[in-house]
Design a protein that fits this description.
With about 210 residues, this protein is α+β, with helices and mostly antiparallel strands. The protein is built from four helices and nine strands; from the N terminus they run αααβββββαββββ. The radius of gyration is 30 Å and the shape is globular.
Length: about 210
Amino acid sequence: MYSRALQPALLATVLALTACSGPTTTSASNKEPDKVEATAPAVPVTAKTAFWEMYKAARAWAPDMLPIKLEAKPLNGMKFDGGKAGLWEAHFASPEKKQYTKFTYSVVAQPPDIRKGVTAGEALPWAGLTRDALAFQSSEFAVDSDVAYETAAAKASSWVKEHPGIAMNTMSLGAASRFPGPVWYFLWGDKKNGFYQLVSASTGKALK
């Protein structure tokens, strides 16, 4: 009887103490403002940086894949910069599947069409290699886009001075029968009124 009589009193006391102490029991961590980690802004990358990411995805698509072409693509708010770009596109072909597909690598997402990272395109029928569109080995791709650009820009310097305000708008890598290996192609202006320069992707030398 005695213990039962004390229970309501004890309960009331506990509740009262809890009510009094509740607002003051705030942990130190809750008092500190949430820390927001700073995210570095996206910047253009060289061709090799993008190429190897797409290469791995292409190998998963077809182990016998062959790289055919690599090209920088325009990206809103990000210009080509010293042989670097924010968006790259690569073409890979599979002799066994008789198909080819495009992969893209972007440093940022720009919905609805552009996703960050590697994106695979639709596989399409492929008729095989031609004299003007040959495959190249990854080992032949020794000279990155920024290094090749420096060589091309030096050759284009006189033309660029005579045509101020005209920027380089094409930067691509491919192979053709008239060259011993893959070649970089840089174009300022357009094909009718512009300047282009070829640079070997194997040796880094300017080609005529």
